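In this supplementary section we document a worked example of the pipeline. Step one takes a protein sequence of length 403 as its only input; no multiple sequence alignment statistics are reported here. Step two produces a three-dimensional model, which step three serialises into C-alpha cells for compact storage. The input and output of this example are shown verbatim.
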Amino acid sequence: MMREILFLAHRIPWPADRGDKIRSHHILKRLCEMAPVHVGTFADDERDMGFAEAMDGLVASRHVELRDKPHWQAGLEGLFTGRPISVQSFASRTMQNWVDARIASGRISHIFCFSGQMAQYVPNDFAGRFIMDFVDVDSAKFESYAEEGHAFMRWVNRREGRVLGRFETEIAARANASLLVSEAEAALFQRRTATSIVMALGNGIDTAFYDPDGHFKKLHPPFPDPLIVFTGQMDYRPNIEAVSDFAQNAMPVISAQHPEATFAIVGRNPNQAVSDLSMLPGVQVTGAVEDVRSWLAAADVVVAPLRIARGIQNKVLEAMAMAKPVVASPAAAEGIDAEHGQHFFVEENVGAEAARVCTLLAEPSSGLSIGKAARAHVMAHYGWRSQLAPLDRLMGLGTDDPQ
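The serialised model returned by step three reads:
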C-alpha cells in the first residue's frame, strides 16, 4: 500500500505569520520529511490565496480554496443542521469532493487534521491512521464567551460551546490520537471528552528567526521611547479585549509615572474598536507591519494581557526569544514552562501589570537581565525540532503497520 499523508488545515499554512499558521506550517514541513503530503486548506482572503504556490515543490498536491462564506450564512446553516456554527463556517462541497478523490486514489494511509473545523472532511469509514490536532479546546472558549455580552450572543455562544463540545467528543472517539497544544489543554480535553488517547504537542519557536541580533529592519529614531508593545492578529476577540483593557486601564497608570511611554498595538486587521484606541493618550495602532521583529526589538517591555486564552501563546515565546522582558496575564502564560521573575513576569490583573511595567521602565537593567534569561530558556526548551519529535511515533510511518 502507498503511504501518503492527507494534511487538512483550516488556514493555509503559508506564510507562518500568525499563531495557528506558525504551528501548522512547522507540522506540515515535518510531515513532508516523512512521506508525500497532499494539502487541503482554506485561504481567508486573496492575499493568502497568493501564497498557494509557495507550497509547490514541498507537497505532492494541494487544494487551496478561498473561504468567503458570510458569518450570517454559516450561522443559519449551523442552526438549521444542528451543527456547530464554527464548523459550518468551513463546510464546502468542493473541499469534500477533493478530499474524497484523494482518499479514493488508494494512496492515503494517514490523515493529519489541523483544527477541529476540518474534521468534518474525514470519512467515518477511513481505514488508515487519523491524527487530530485540536490545538485548543475551542468549546471551552465559546463557553467563556457566553459569560458576557448581550443576551442573544450569550445564547449563541452557550449553544456553540455545547454543540461544539459534542462534536469534539465524537471526533476524538474516531481519532487514533488527539493532540492539544499544552498539558493543561490536554488534561481539560480529556476530562471533557473521556477520551483516553490524548497528548500534548507543544509549540516551538524559530530562535534563528526571532533573534535580537538577526538581520531585519530596525526601527529608526525618532520612535517612541519608552515603548510597550503588544503583537497579535487584531480582529481576534481575545486580542481586542486584551489591548482595550490595557490601553484604557493600565496606560493611565503608566503614563502618570512615565509620561513619554507609548503602547504600540502591532498587528494586522485592527477592527474599529482597536483603531479607536489610537485616540487615547500614549496609544499607537500600527496595523500590519512589514516585520514584527522590528517592533519587538525596539520594545522596552512586551505585554500579553489576555483575559481569555487557550493553549500556548506564540506571541509570548517570540518576545522571549527576542530577549525582551514580558509581562503576561495568567491566561497568556498558561502552558509555558518558564519561571515568574526569572524568565518573564506573570501578573494577576491589569493593576499589577501596570505596576510591573512601571518598575521595568524605571529599572532598564532588570529588563535586560530578564530578557537575556528568557532567550536562553526558549533556545534550550522550545525549538521546533524537539517539540515535534513525538510526531514520528504518532504517525507510525517507520513501521510496517500504519494502524
